[in-house]
Amino acid sequence: MAETIAQDVKAPLVIGHRGASAYLPEHTIEAYKLAIEQGADVIEPDIVVTKDGHLIARHENLLNETTDVRDHPEFAHLYTTKMVDGQTVSGWFAEDFTLAEIKTLYARERIPTIRPESAEHNDQYRIATLEEVIALVNQVEADTGKKIAIAPETKHPTYFSYTGQYVDGSFIHVDTSRMLVEKLVELGFTEGNRVYIQSFDVLNLIQLAKEIMPEAGVDYQIVQLLGGAADIYFHFNPEYKELGANPDLYKDFNFPLTAASALNTDLYTPQAVKAMAALYADFLAPSKDAIIRTATLMNPVDANGDGVAQVTRIVTGILDLAKVAHDAGLGVIPWTVRADEPFLALNPDGTVQRPVEEFVKLLDLGLDAIFTDFPDLGRMIVDQYVAGDGAIAATNSSGGNDILVRDPAGLTAEKGTEGYDLALYGGDQAIALASNIESLRLSGSGDVEVTGNDLNNILLGNAGDNVFIESRGNDRIDGGAGQDTLVLSGGRGDYDIQIVNGLVEIANAAQGSVMRVSNVETLRYADGEASLLTTGQSDLQGLYHAFFGREADAGGLDFWLAQGLAGQSVAAIAASFATSDEFRLRSEDVETGAFVEALYTKVLARTGDQGGRDFWVEQIDSQAISRAEVALSFARSDEAESKIALLTPPADIWPDLA
Description:
Blueprint: E1 13-17, H1 29-37, E2 42-44, E3 46-49, E4 55-57, E5 80-84, E6 87-91, H2 99-102, H3 116-119, H4 130-144, E7 149-150, E8 153-154, H5 157-163, H6 176-186, E9 196-199, H7 203-216, E10 221-225, H8 230-235, H9 270-279, E11 283-285, H10 288-291, E12 292-301, E13 311-318, H11 321-327, E14 331-332, H12 355-363, E15 369-372, H13 375-387, E16 391-395, E17 401-405, E18 422-425, E19 431-432, E20 439-442, E21 449-451, E22 458-460, E23 467-469, E24 476-478, E25 485-487, E26 495-500, E27 503-508, E28 513-518, E29 522-525, E30 528-531, H14 537-548, H15 554-565, H16 570-578, H17 581-587, H18 592-604, H19 610-621, H20 627-635, H21 638-647, H22 654-657
Parallel strand pairs: 1-2, 1-15, 2-7, 3-8, 9-10, 10-11, 11-14, 17-18, 18-20, 19-21, 20-22, 21-23, 22-24, 23-25, 24-28, 25-29
Antiparallel strand pairs: 3-4, 5-6, 12-13, 16-17, 26-27, 27-28, 29-30
Helix pairs in contact: 6-7, 12-13, 14-16, 14-18, 14-20, 14-21, 18-19, 18-20
């Protein structure tokens, strides 16, 4: 097989979201500069306005979270409460400060508990103006010849134009979209393909395309962000008529709008997107979470083994909004890919979706650009993707690489590092780890043959029937679901097998290695096959969740694993569970609906759907099936098998493979 995948792909632009905002306080010249150094094609300054009419780069006009304004007693009198796009907000606001006053403030990390390294740079950098941003990209062009583009987002244009008030109660009435274009023209930054003006509002983008830019003699790119259009709610709400609300301003927008369209639910439709394309837009920018759809987890998951569970969502599917945009003639730019644990989600099988997986899922949809707080990761991944590499490597938090394997032949040593490397593979071809790559995580249901190397490998199977080839290291192998086989180089007499701490330890005396194994059903020796576990670790954890509502205790797990090693079936062990005092206490004198709901919660990690819940309640109450039989049905269901990694991750490998 070739090590590259033939494809004709235009390189999507990497947009440094608020600069390299994962590493330095956002919207500072230093963060923008770092983003450019990391390979960003575009930097994104959010734009708000000062009291004396200067455009500055801030995510919000509210200064509390991103500056040291609280530490300035001279500004205490400017603390106030305002209504911003329908939300009551208290604090200090940029529009109440002159530029000179703004320049006395220092930038601070917006989410310091998530990004403590960035917070170490608090109170070091000043607030940037639009002029300073343009000066930076001009200097980069002069020094390197590279033309960096900018993607300014006009923040709260309806607020600034219609509803916003200064601290003294007078109305602001400032058109930040017009100010932005006029300033760019004044600075000579007029190349149309170097400016991507964004907004969640619609009207200001229409006015940019139809009035402001033609009057200024420029043709910048217009990007419609999806996620909440405050202008539509304002202009289609009669109570705001005295403030200037006027739905007739949208008369050329060929789509029926209402105040309810403010949340953009209407604007995701093909009809609305076509109307945008016909009237004003060049690009559509939905949240990446609107594309990679997720559901909320009942219980957060610890993704990196630090003891803090911060992953709260699980992937449920893909909505191809890129096709909707492209069919209408628009480019598509999703926001925002982040690698911090609270922004990650689980894959449907309960493993953590690594950033490289999320990037590539989005790139596979044919994106034109992508917003990311991690421009270095974006650059690495996009370059390999466009080159058609069979394996795409991206830096991970363990000092190595996460490597998404699209063609096993591409998993070469150059993709690995001296740190801890994890390969991720969702196909069905045989795969072998390069000599410097420690771990492999399979996904999907392909029947994959896995060959490790001389390192101490960690190998995690999938839902298929996997075959693991013995290597020379002290390997940790989890077969996952399916009927899995471990191929051993020696005969039966060359190995010692015992249960230790919930795992099957298989020692190769001649080689001096020990494999620690879970969820592998068959051993294939040089002189024949033998059953290993008729009931494996995942089977037992499923039974414990279904019958006892808890994880297996260490002693119990070892005991029942020994029974599985001796050939006892899942059904036979379930029968023993059903007659236990613990199950009787959990099931007797418990209302049927509560018993069934507990099974959904403990076994499937979700609330019960009404149809399923009603079915099982009726089956139990009519005595068509016993509670023990229902518990076993839940434990043995395909859904339960797919959730076992989520419910009970293998503790010793989860920090590395999650």
